[in-house]
Design a protein that fits this description.
The protein is an alpha+beta fold. It contains eight helices and nine strands. Strands 1, 2, 3, 4, 5, 6 and 9 form a seven-stranded mixed sheet that branches. It has a two-stranded antiparallel sheet with strand order 7-8. The protein is elongated. The chain starts with a strand and ends with a helix.
């Protein structure tokens, strides 16, 4: 019987990006099956705590605290983009970046508070001393936010990974001249797989982090060695 790694994902990550993140592990352990569960952040943390998942890949947020016996690896980030309503696009022509203050009077369509994007958007405005103005109604998915902006019902905020194929104007959100990003981490513990398989998986993830040009691996590798003894 083949080993199965149980992997939880926020929809912000998506299976295609998860497969890319796990490419090195797939190559080294081709007989290990990857079983993905894509659901809300709260459910992912709950399933990890109950031993139903081995790793979760989620946006960072203060309410999602991992158990003490978990390891954590900050991995990557997505730049947040402002998606203006179609009726206002001419107003934003030539604008290379916007601050929260620039868009505070916009009305935004948001998603259900499940994947982490809505929390990140609300927190961004609050960190600048503003309240995000929500329109009535709610989008169901990332493409829906683009549709709402296209028919000029509301503006949107989306990660750059979700607007790469969008043909209309999107503008980077900046803070102090720097891009505002939503950060992602991998959190895990060997719940359904042997510890040696988990260690191999985690080592591959650490190598992916190096390949992405991230820093701070020493602390995370030390945490791994401590937690998996």
């Amino acid at each position: 019987m083949s080993t199965k790694v149980q992997i939880g994902l926020s929809p912000l990550i998506g299976v295609a990006r998860a497969e890319s993140i796990l490419a090195r592990f797939k190559s080294r352990s081709p007989t290990t099956e990857r079983v993905y569960s894509e659901t809300s952040i709260d459910k992912l943390y709950s399933r990890l705590a109950r031993g139903l998942l081995d790793i979760i890949i989620v946006p960072n947020h203060p309410c999602g605290l991992a158990e003490a016996d978990c390891v954590l690896l900050p991995l990557m980030s997505d730049q947040l983009m402002f998606v203006p309503r179609s009726s206002e696009r001419a107003h934003w022509l030539g604008v290379e970046g916007v601050t929260v203050k620039d868009i505070v009077n916009e009305k935004f369509v948001l998603l259900p508070d499940t994947c982490g994007l809505t929390r990140a958007a609300i927190k961004l405005f609050q960190s600048q001393g503003f309240s995000l103005s929500r329109c009535e109604g709610q989008a169901s998915c990332y493409n829906s936010i683009l549709e709402w902006s296209d028919v000029s019902l509301a503006s949107g905020i989306l990660p750059i990974s979700k607007v790469r194929n969008f043909q209309q104007r999107v503008i980077p959100i900046l803070d102090g001249g720097h891009p505002v990003v939503i950060e992602y981490s991998i959190i895990g513990k060997p719940s359904t797989i042997p510890k040696n398989v988990f260690t191999e998986l985690w080592d591959c993830l650490l190598e992916i982090k190096v390949a992405l040009g991230q820093e701070g691996l020493g602390e995370e590798r030390g945490r791994q060695a401590f937690c998996l003894q």
